[in-house]
Amino acid sequence: MVLQFYAPSIVGGGGGIVALVLAEKQIPFNHVLIDIHAQDHKTSEFLAMNPFGQDDDGFVLYESRAICRYLCEKYADLGTPLLPSEVTKRAIFEQAASVESANFTPTAKAARDAARKQAMADTAHGRHQGKAALDAALSDLSATLDVYEVILGKYKFIAGDKFTLADVFHYSYAPYLAESRVDIMTSRGPNVARWWNELMSRPAWVKLKREGM
Q1: What residues contact residue 122 under an 8 Å CB cut-off, 6+ apart?
Q2: In what residue span(s) does the GST C-terminal domain sit (predicted)?
Q3: Closest CA to 75 of 21, 13, 16
């Protein structure tokens, strides 16, 4: 049975990174569209698989990062290798993945949320409060990207010289920043900018965006 991938048609978030892994690994799948506006994700059938689901021949898994790791392990012989097999390279990958989860994503999500709230503010007072919140969030994200600037001065990608799942995880929230007119990913430092531009130009990602998935 072809793998069933349940997700909304949104280029970003958990669905975005799973879709990118499927594309990079060239794994055949059937996209079961979840309409968030129609509350498809609140149905008893969908909730039985939890908030995010993948059905691989009867095996149901949720949580995007767990799904990504599963796909990379099970389909290791397909497409782009996204998980290092050598022990020290795997350790550096896990280190980078932990940094993304604990440091990057919380600050990137906070910046995205603050940018959206500022944009939706309908009063001068609200916009002022929104700018203060956005400035604070961007300060935290900037501190993380300062460390990335050093790391990316040594490596081509965040976990070494090859594109890995640690890079993929950054697609979850960072692309939303540019959509919210926050250009921090390309203006913080030359190494971060070079890395991020390379990620945004990955053929698999460009194709997903073009197709609206």
Answers
A1: none
A2: 86-213
A3: 21
Rounded CA-CA distance 54/3 in Å is 7
Pairing status of strand 59-61 against strand 53-56 = antiparallel
pTM recorded for the entire structure: 0.85
Helices (H), 57-123: 64-74, 87-99, 105-120
User: Which structure tokens are listed for 126?
Assistant: 């609200």
Strands, E, within the chain: which ranges?
3-7, 29-33, 53-56, 59-61
pLDDT in tens, 150-169: 999 999 999 999 999 999 99
DSSP states of 35-48: -TTTTGGGSHHHHT
Rounded to whole angstroms, how far apart are CA atoms 146 and 138?
12
In angstroms, rounded to a whole number, what is the distance separating the alpha carbons of residues 182 and 185? 8
- The segment with the largest mean pLDDT, out of 64-73, 130-139, 144-153, is 144-153
